[in-house]
Amino acid sequence: QLEAAMASAEDARVQFHEEGDGAGESAAAAVLCKVHMKVGDIDQAMADAGLAYELAFVAGHWDAAASVQKQIAELHLSQQRLQEAGQAATQAVKLWDQAGDPTRLVEGLCMAATVYSQLGASQDAIDSAQQAAELSASSFDPASQARANLTLAQLHQRAYEKENRRQISPSASPSLAAMREAAEAACEAATLAQDRRLRALTAHSLAQALMLSSRPPPESALHMARKASGLFRGCGDVAGEAQSVALTATLLLPRGEIDDAVQLAE
């Protein structure tokens, strides 16, 4: 099927090229990039993406050009070329801003935040995610709002983990308070979006925030961990379910429910 998709996309690219349709050729090249990514031909995928970007940019199709820059960032990330990934993600954000597409701009900001975090630029990552969360609040797209706030919550969790090495108490941690606020906003938006996996991810994040915020953890943390586990199971996400089950077991231990915790761990 991938070979057939590759052949069809290449035929379309050649036809668009012969017709002088730069936008069409760019779209076909972007499809070729995705197919080559799937088969693991990174060099060819990068060449496809370069052509797709050049054609989209020349045609003034900023949204398409931004999408290709996101693909380029993903390609660089897959090869651990973080600086190049950061540059491509930043360019995608600029182009989506120019295109006036708030939902895709939120997507680009979240990706940029992820790359900045991997580069060790923690504050730049949080700033990008915060901008995404604020922008998503007025986008009338609850799924976009949930993803932005989930990204923000995850970044604040990493910041708290660094604080925790310095023995900062949960009640005194600004990162932990911000994590919980973002996780709660993500959960609320995911419920409105009616996206089961997104609800699972946000429930798991809120369970972690609640667990970290109070010792012993509140009943609500256990409730959210169990909810996340059920949601992950419902959408067939085995890895996500395993993480939430492990979190549930961890939350049962301080309650003295040793047998239940051991049973879950098994």
Short note summarizing the structure:
This protein is mainly alpha-helical.
Index terms:
single chain; 13 helices; 266 residues; mainly alpha; 83% helix
* Span of the ends, CA to CA: 40 Å
| Assembly level | single chain
Number of strands: 0
Shape: elongated
Give a topology summary.
Blueprint: H1 2-19, H2 22-38, H3 42-58, H4 62-78, H5 82-99, H6 102-119, H7 122-136, H8 142-164, H9 174-193, H10 196-213, H11 219-234, H12 238-252, H13 258-265
Helix pairs in contact: 1-2, 2-3, 2-4, 3-4, 4-5, 4-6, 5-6, 6-7, 6-8, 7-8, 8-9, 8-10, 9-10, 10-11, 10-12, 11-12, 12-13
Structure description:
It is a single chain. Helix content is 83%, strand content 0%. It contains 13 helices and no strands. It has helices spanning 2-19, 22-38, 42-58, 62-78, 82-99, 102-119, 122-136, 142-164, 174-193, 196-213, 219-234, 238-252, 258-265. Helix 8 (142-164) runs antiparallel to helix 9 (174-193) and helix 11 runs antiparallel to helix 12. The longest helix has 23 residues, at 142-164. It is elongated, with a radius of gyration of 21 Å.
